[in-house]
Design goal:
By secondary structure, the chain is mostly helical. The chain is built from 9 helices and no strands. Pfam families: TetR_C_13_2, TetR_N. This is TetR/AcrR family transcriptional regulator.
Length: 183
């Protein structure tokens, strides 16, 4: 790739970090790996993110949250009914897990599980993303916040089980339960 074709350094750092967090988590991602994957000089990291890894992580969590929200909504909104929408989201999650050999799951959950008790700044960032997702899903479920919480909880829990068990069976089971009562 020619330099003129490369995204700006800051964007490359954000993208590389998001990918690494999805696959390795927050604690498993070192800053040297970030800049190497971003093809950026190490000093550029602190130029763009003077708050270091914590600032970078907060921005990545929020940007990834917005990206995945838009991706899920595109699938959800493309269906004819609420039940079909929920079914399609769970089916897409299962397909993604299989396609990535169970490496890629929810990047927000991956970080949230690591930092919930140790880093209040990042805990709040992950909470903001989850709250946004809950709110958007609640709107699509005609204000049924409890069902929205249940569906999101089922999906996030299924990601954890599927990665550990290396099977999409938990995602499919959670999807069937999430759809129950919607048809």
């Amino acid at each position: 790739m020619r330099d003129v074709d490369k995204p700006p350094t800051r964007d490359r750092i954000l993208l590389a970090t998001a990918e690494l967090f999805r696959r390795q988590g927050y604690t498993g991602t070192g800053l040297k790996t970030v800049v190497a994957d971003a093809q950026a000089p190490f000093g550029s990291l602190y130029h763009h993110f003077p708050g270091g890894k914590q600032q970078l992580a907060g921005e990545v969590v929020r940007a990834s949250g917005a990206y995945f929200e838009a991706l899920v909504l595109a699938v959800y909104d493309g269906q004819a009914s609420t039940a079909e929408s929920v079914r399609a989201v769970f089916a897409g999650a299962a397909a993604m897990l299989e396609e990535t050999d169970y490496v890629d799951a929810c990047p927000i959950a991956t970080v949230a599980l690591e930092v919930a008790s140790t880093d209040e700044v990042l805990r709040r960032a992950t909470a903001e993303v989850f709250t946004s997702w809950i709110d958007v899903l609640t709107e699509r479920l005609d204000g049924d916040r409890e069902r929205a919480l249940g569906i999101l909880s089922a999906l996030e829990g299924a990601f954890v089980l599927s990665r550990a068990l290396r099977t999409t069976e938990p995602v499919h089971a959670a999807g069937r339960l999430a759809v129950a009562g919607l048809e």
